[in-house]
Each structure stands twice: as structure tokens, then as C-alpha cells.
């Protein structure tokens, strides 16, 4: 039974990783690329690590993989948010189909003083 779960999780993990790579190639701007890549890659690595935990089924491996998954799920969204925020503040062009931008920095330029204060 554990072999079936391992195979299923490995297939799911590689499928999510494939979706992440397709998202990076196919999406029109940095914001949508980052969204697709972050979500899919996080789930892909998470499924793959769960497969490792099930396959080896000892306490040390399971503990380490669960800690890695937790760290990944905590840091990947924060990193993507910071990259997106930096791109937005540097006014990286958006896709022409972007309808709404709710950021407080949407129509303003960021001065050097503001950047220094926020550091």
C-alpha cells in the first residue's frame, strides 16, 4: 500500500513541477509567472518530500521531511510576495490584460528617500 501512495505522490509532485515550469514559460508577466511557479513548485516539492517520508518510513527521515515541508510552505509565499512587491515598486511592466491594481504604489513613483526609509 505504501508503494502506491509513494508512486501517486511522486507523480503528483512531478506534475506540479511540470506545471511550474510551464507557468514560467507561458505566463505573460513577472507577476503571473511568479504566482504559477510558486504555487506549483511548493506543492510539487511538498508531494515529493511526502513520498520520501512514506517510502523510507523511519522517524528521522519523516521528521526531517516534515520540517522541510513546513519551512518551504512558510518561506516560499513570503519570498514570492517580496519579489512581487519589489517588482511592483520598481514599476516592472504589467500584462496588458491587467484590469485592476490595488496597490498603494500603483500610480506613484517611489523616491529614493522612501526606499531608504523602508530599508
UniProtKB/TrEMBL annotation:
Keywords tagged on the record: Membrane, Transmembrane, Transmembrane helix
Gene Ontology MF, one: sodium:proton antiporter activity
Listed transmembrane segments: 6-25, 37-57, 63-84
Pfam family, one: PhaG_MnhG_YufB
Zinc among keywords: no
Keyword NADP among UniProt keywords: no
NCBIfam families: CPA3_mnhG_phaG, PRK12674.1-2
Name of this protein: Na(+)/H(+) antiporter subunit G
Organism annotation: Thalassoglobus polymorphus
Amino acid at each position: 500500500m505504501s508503494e502506491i501512495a509513494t508512486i501517486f505522490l511522486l507523480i503528483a509532485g512531478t506534475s506540479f513541477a511540470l506545471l511550474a515550469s510551464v507557468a514560467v514559460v507561458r505566463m505573460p508577466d513577472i507577476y503571473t509567472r511568479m504566482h504559477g511557479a510558486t504555487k506549483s513548485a511548493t506543492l510539487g516539492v511538498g508531494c515529493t518530500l511526502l513520498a520520501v517520508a512514506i517510502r523510507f518510513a523511519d522517524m528521522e527521515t519523516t521528521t526531517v521531511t516534515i520540517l522541510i515541508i513546513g519551512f518551504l510552505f512558510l518561506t516560499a509565499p513570503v519570498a514570492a510576495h517580496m519579489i512581487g512587491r519589489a517588482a511592483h515598486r520598481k514599476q516592472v511592466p504589467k500584462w496588458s490584460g491587467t484590469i485592476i491594481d490595488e496597490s498603494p504604489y500603483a500610480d506613484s513613483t517611489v523616491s529614493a528617500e522612501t526606499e531608504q526609509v523602508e530599508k
